[in-house]
Amino acid sequence: TGGLLLALSESEQQRYSELFSRCCPPPEAAAGGSSVGELFRASQLPPDTLHQITEVCGAKRVGYFGPAQFYIALKLIAAAQSGFPVRIESIKNELPLPQFMALKNDSEVRYGTPAELHGVKFQVPHATLEKNSFKRADEGDKQEPKSPPMSPICSPPASPSTYQRIPLSYGYGKSRSGLEQQHGAPYEVRHSTHQQDGPSSGNYGAKPALACSTLNRSLSAEREQQDSSAHYSDDPWRITEEQRDYYINQFRSLQPDLNSFISGSVAKNFFTKSKLPIPELSHIWELSDVDCDGALTLPEFCAAFHLVVARKNGYQLPETLPETLLPEYLQAASLKPMRDCALFDSYSESLPGGQQTRDFSRTEKTSAEEVPENSAVLQDGKKDDKQALKVSTGLKTIPKEFQHLTVKTAAQESNALKSRPRSRSYSSTSIEDAMKKGEEPPTPPPRPQKSHSRASSLDLNKIFQQNTQAVRSGWLPPPPPALPPRPSASQTEQPSEVELHPQMNRPPSQAEENSSVKKEVALSQPPSKPARRKLRTEAQGLETPELSPTINVTSSLPAVKPHLPVQKQSSKQKRAIQTAIRKNKEANAVLARLNSELQQQLKEVHKERIALETQLEQLRPVTVL
Amino acid sequence: VLVSVIHSPPQNYPLYIRSVPTENELKFHYTVHTSLDVVDEKISAMGKALVDQRELYLGLLYPTEDYKVYGYVTNSKVKFVMVVDSSNTALRDNEIRSMFRKLHNSYTDIMCNPFYNPGDRIHSRAFDNMVNSMMMQVC
């Protein structure tokens, strides 16, 4: 029975593995290029045919001749020698063994009994599937350098379902070789509906038969979609659209608010239903919960779900989270269809269109190593993000210092979360746009870092007005002590992010910056900081200090400074958050007091004004009427 | 050279042990176990005062083996023990502290995983990687 994906006959299989081992002495995973070249040349095919074969079999893309590529290549050689064009489809047919003249043991083995070739049951869809699988293999290989070496896939696909499996296993060989055998059985076991679901479950784009048995029905229905989306879901760690929709629906079933998160216990129960072993689930969690907060946001959930799907389909779990599963990446991609609010419309500054995900993957790749930081920031950033919006809208008159903080707050967000601030900026570029608040999706309660409530922000404005003259530049609004850490931490992030978070530079120089600089800085930084810009201009507009400065505010502001230099690290975030909460509460109390004092002053001033006006009336010449 | 261990109360059994030169591992086990007593002693000594996160503990200098043992206790009484070769004089106090801090952070990350039951042995790959990288740094 044909062992390989292509259902090679026994003789073929034997031959191929023999050739392969000759070219690639085990335990290496890939055949040496030179020996492979020798072999190919021995087939006496014209060199450009050989080039074509190399390309088609995927070795070019991958860069080496793994068993999959090698076998395909051999098959293609056989096809070419029989006169077929060098294409994937041709090797599906029955073919004689490739003939290699120069090699001794090759010469006599011209096995040409088509009858021996099984695997004729191939279906046409396989063409595309295999192509996709090749692509997938390439990308999968590239994406997962640590995948176990592919060894010749020898387990015979015993049932039709394995045919469907073939593209997958062919392409992804990662653990296939080892798992192929056991997958023969568990594959059927896992998928309650065998034959027709076999393909669907085998296909990458299809969802696995999780405990949710209804999946299987939808899976088979979605199999057709797999081809269409296959080009996009070339690699196993990229989530297709239908997969994402499915994940989102599952998320909704656990947590109706798509912008909130699933708690650990809920997620645990859910994923336990997938019947994966606990250590694997633990590892999946480790991979997907990038901010290590014990909860899964939507992108994290999608990543986790996707890993479960992949695992059930037989893929080994990666050591690190693939880039396409990073929350930032997923958020960019997933938020596209979810237009709950305009937030995510302009996720990628550079990619307003549908290519956002792809480009994002690139930009995200550059910041891939910042995932730990991002993860830490993500959690807070998400909430901060929304808070920033609220705060920004509320703090229209906030002086620039505060704007800095709000800027920082936005900056705190991970790279992925930049999308939200960015979208905010796009949606409301005008500084006075107060509609940002409306754009925000239902967000969790404002983070303490955002500090001021709207009411207090207004007072802050006055307060700062008073003090602007003297100490403007040195002021730091009480708000988020944790803010500076993020921006400063994010400063250490890759320069590619600098443009996105220009405000990162601000935190350190916060105290020194003057209002005009800030304003320019804010305006020059489209992403996220619309609030900031707004605040800045407002603050600048409020240049009229009429109220007497309150020392409390000044003193409280410097007190916040010490917190600014705290470096944002995922490890310190929690502590920073708690201190931030405390500080914000204190600041709030101070500001409330300030507020009442200023109100009093305002009343007195009003009284004086009225008195003066009446005096003026009295003193006015009677003639003037 | 370096051994990282975590112990958990109240039974004080190791949740995780890793050493870089993997020989003499048993000796390290023994050392760590004996050091637990000293650690407990220190904890009880500072019971009244605020539990200091940083419990730098240097003192177990065996006359023969000549290595140092550092201890660290978290608020939840999880103990981290590190055994370092004395010949490695490059290790400064704050380096030890930072290593403990990293350990602690990684440990909290593990705790966040809902699939991890407190008291289980730690199998997290991320944690392993962190520990390995840390130990490579030292040696």
Structure description:
The complex is a heterodimer of chains A (625) and B (139). Chain A has 625 residues and is mostly helical. Among the domains of chain A are: 10-82, Recoverin, domain 1; 241-334, Recoverin, domain 1, CATH 1.10.238. In chain A, 57% of the residues lie in helices and 1% in strands. Chain A has helices at residues 10-23, 33-42, 47-57, 59-62, 67-81, 104-107, 125-143, 160-172, 176-190, 197-202, 214-230, 241-254, 264-272, 278-288, 298-312, 327-335, 356-366, 371-394, 400-412, 419-427, 436-439, 454-471, 485-491, 506-509, 515-524, 530-541, 551-560, 570-619, and strands at 262-263, 295-296. In chain A, strands 1-2 form a two-stranded antiparallel ribbon. In chain A, helix 14 runs antiparallel to helix 15. Chain A is elongated. Mean pLDDT of chain A is 57; it is low at 1-5, 103-233, 337-443, 446-460 and 467-567. Helices cover 40% and strands 19% of the residues of chain B. Chain B has a 4-stranded antiparallel beta sheet, with helices on both faces. Chain B has one domain (2-137): Beta-Lactamase. In chain B, helix 2 runs antiparallel to helix 3. In chain B, a hairpin with a 5-residue loop joins strand 3 (67-73) and strand 4 (79-85). By secondary structure, chain B is an alpha+beta fold. Residues 55-61 of chain B have low confidence and may be disordered. Classes of the chains: A mainly alpha (625), B alpha+beta (139). Chains A and B meet through helix 13, helix 14 and helix 28 of A and helix 2 and helix 3 of B.
Proportion of strand residues of chain A:
under 5%
Q: What profile does the largest beta sheet of chain A have?
A: 2 strands, antiparallel
From the alpha-carbon coordinates, what is the Rg of chain B to the nearest angstrom? 14 Å
CATH superfamily of the domain at 241-334 in chain A, please? EF-hand
Stated plainly, the CATH topology of chain B is called Beta-Lactamase
Uncertain ranges of chain B: 55-61
CATH architecture of chain B: 2-Layer Sandwich
Calculate Rg of chain A over CA atoms.
Answer: 32 Å
